[in-house]
Amino acid sequence: MRIKSFIRVSDEIRQRCPQFVGAAVLANVCNSEYDAELWKEIGAFLDDYRQRFTPDSIKTMPPIEATRETYRRCGKDPSRYRPSGEALIRRTLKGHELYRVNTLVDLINLASIAYGYSIGGFDADKIVMPQATSTTDEEAGGIVLGIGREGEPYEGIGRGPLNIAGLPVYRDAIGGIGTPTSDHERTKLSLDTTRLLTIVNGYDGNRANVLACANFIQRLLQRYAASDGGEVLEF
Fold first, then answer.
1. For residues 148 and 164, is the Cβ–Cβ distance under 8 A?
2. What are phi and psi of 43, to 5 degrees?
3. What span, in angstroms and rounded, lies between the C-alpha atoms of 176 and 167?
4. What pairing do the DSSP bridges indicate for beta strands 176-178 and 7-9?
5. Dihedral of the alpha carbons of 184, 7, 81, 152, in degrees to the nearest 10
6. Model pLDDT, residue 142
7. Which one-letter DSSP state was computed for residue 59?
8. Which pLDDT does position 138 carry in this prediction?
9. 3-state helix/strand/coil string of 79-110
10. Contact call for residues 230 and 221 (beta carbons, < 8 A)
């Protein structure tokens, strides 16, 4: 899988959020059920985070407000379909423990809280790429960020059927794989995942912060997922 020409932002997203910038990390990884050292880092980070922020701070966090505004422009109520980055931060600032899923999901959640972005995490080998019939088709991109349609089938991880009409959604050749609210069961990360694709969604247009988040994910992968950090693509 070539990461260049791999992700494309549709015109319908550009029209509603012209400032959008994204960054993807594609890496070979070794997942695990639990990493004690990672959770030490998460625990120390969350202790400091709760000292610096309160639930009211969410209102002043540009990545969160920009994602909420994009939901509104696409036709979705962000209070009913809360973006995952916001949900994680709200949970943290209420003093609740984070869910422990597996090392790849856990480190992505840490990055999401640290930078405020909703971040998709996918098993790259489960993504179905369209067959390119020409150079032009190949350059068009295998995954497209668009807007969910009425009646479009989608099974959110641990949520069952999810109404994604009006949500930003990444689609592969089969259908939706990720929204800022929930990724799809079909491409979710598991202990068998050996290639990770993670996508940072910068609806606030802060290119430097989006890339810093992607670089932070690379460092976490190097420490906790037996990875060289993989390749970063800005799109």
1. yes
2. -60, -45
3. 11
4. unpaired
5. -60
6. 84
7. G
8. 42
9. CCCCCHHHHHHHHHHCCCCCCCCCHHHHHHHH
10. yes
Q: pLDDT tens-digit profile of 142-186?
A: 899 999 999 999 999 999 999 999 999 999 999 999 999 999 999
Q: Which pTM value belongs to this model?
A: 0.94
* Structural contact between residues 203 and 17, judged by C-beta atoms closer than 8 angstroms: yes
User: What domains does the chain contain, in order, with CATH numbers?
Assistant: 7-234 (3.50.40.10)
In angstroms, the CA 57 to CA 52 distance is: 9
Instruction: Please provide the DSSP assignment of 127-185 as one string.
Output: --PPPPSSHHHHHH-SEEEEE--TT---EETTTEE---TTSEEEE-SSSEEE-SS-BBG
Q: Which two tokens stand for residue 8?
A: 């494309």
Nearest to 22 by CA among 143, 152, 167: 143
- Within 10 A of 132 (CB to CB), how many other CB atoms are there? 13
- The structure tokens 């999810």 sit at 162
Q: Which of 127, 143, 108 is nearest to 214 (CA)?
A: 108
- Beta-carbon count within 10 A of 72 CB: 12
Find the helix or strand (DSSP H, E) in which 195 lies: strand 195-202
pLDDT, one tens digit per residue, over 13-52 is: 999 999 999 999 999 999 999 999 999 999 999 999 999 9
In terms of C-beta density within 10 A (0-12 exposed, 13-18 middle, 19 or more buried), how is residue 217 classed? Answer: buried
Instruction: Phi first, then psi: give them for residue 53, nearest 5 degrees.
Output: -130, 160
CA distance linking residue 140 with residue 45, whole number of Å: 39
